[in-house]
Specification:
Number of strands: 8
Number of helices: 9
Distance between the termini: 47 Å
Largest sheet: 6 strands, mixed
């Protein structure tokens, strides 16, 4: 038999089994499976698999197909739909205010609120504080949307205390074991007093916890489905198990009401936004006039970001099972 055909027969079926499991996991957890592929790439790129792909194009086609599946999958934000209370915030920023140069959203209400790429953090914070002061002086009672960056990562109760008096639409969190990836958790019932906001964030925590636990189950199921007969399959199995461990850690953090909230998308009168406690709130960035809460792409500052940003990427808005 031709040596390359022998290699085809030996490697392609087993590799396809790993990738088949990977693509199945992608449908339920796109980011998790992509990380599993990334783990394989990091571990074996130096060990010669790239050489196999060069000499054995069929193997490359299987991998490329898996990556195309991952790229085609979109993301939607996590809604704590089981939480009681009013519907999610549909607030819209007011029309332009004289003396308040907050900009204008696009015709659909979409807007980016946050620092620009490679922004100097102190300058950004100072500019947003000056804007808020000008808008407060110009129209203190006008309703507005804003992205709040907290001084430190906070528990649901502490975050709610910092956001008292406003309506919270989205909480932004970072969880240990998730590569410091920021996530956006949609809130329902986060209207009014601190107790309502705290309950809304806790409900979103519970929904996210359930998704992590389900994702852990899927990762372990994929790992169990791989019968290890070669190093590639062993690496694939290990990657799924490692991700399941990370999911378990994240679920535990959420179960314990972790200090993970570092920002929020909120709405309220401008004077109320300006009066949020300075010790807990680092900066309030007003959304442009005409912005709609559901269409705002927000980028709060992480507490660790103090100098110059390396990226201005917005937090992920994960799919169910993709936390």
């Amino acid at each position: 038999m031709n040596p390359l055909r022998s290699l085809d027969a030996a490697l392609v079926p087993s590799t396809a089994r790993v990738l088949r499991g990977t693509t199945e996991a992608m449908h339920a957890a796109p980011r998790r499976a992509a990380r599993a592929l990334g783990a394989l790439d990091q571990r074996y790129a130096r060990g010669g698999v790239l050489g196999f792909v060069r000499d054995l194009p069929q193997l490359g086609f299987v991998a490329i197909g898996a990556l195309l599946v991952a790229g085609a999958l979109g993301a939607v934000r996590v809604d704590a739909t089981a939480a009681p209370g009013p519907a999610p915030n549909t607030a819209r920023a007011v029309t332009p205010i004289a003396g308040c140069a907050s900009g204008t959203a696009d015709p659909s209400g979409g807007a980016y609120v946050g620092p620009s790429d490679s922004a100097a953090v102190p300058a950004y914070v100072d500019s947003q504080r000056r804007l808020l002061a000008a808008c407060t002086a110009a129209a203190p009672g006008q309703p507005a949307l804003a992205v709040v960056s907290l001084t430190r990562a906070s528990t649901p109760d502490d975050a709610a205390a910092a956001l008292r008096g406003v309506t919270a639409d989205t909480a932004y969190v970072v969880l240990d074991g998730q590569d410091a990836t920021p996530y956006a958790l949609a809130l329902t019932g986060g209207h009014g007093d601190a107790a309502a906001v705290a309950a809304s964030i806790s409900a979103a925590y519970a929904a996210a916890q359930a998704q992590f636990e389900e994702d852990r189950r899927l990762q372990l199921s994929q790992a169990d489905s791989i019968e290890v007969t070669n190093p590639t399959e062993a690496a694939g199995k290990a990657a799924f198990v490692a991700q399941a461990d990370a999911d378990a850690l994240a679920a535990g953090r959420l179960r314990d009401q972790c200090a993970c909230v570092y920002g929020a998308l909120v709405s309220g009168p401008i004077h109320t936004l300006a009066a949020l406690p300075a010790g807990a709130v680092r900066v309030v960035a007003l959304a442009p006039a005409g912005a709609v809460a559901a269409k705002v792409v927000a980028r709060p500052l992480l507490p660790t970001e103090t100098t110059t940003l390396s990226t201005a990427a917005a937090p992920a808005v994960p799919e169910a099972g993709d936390l």
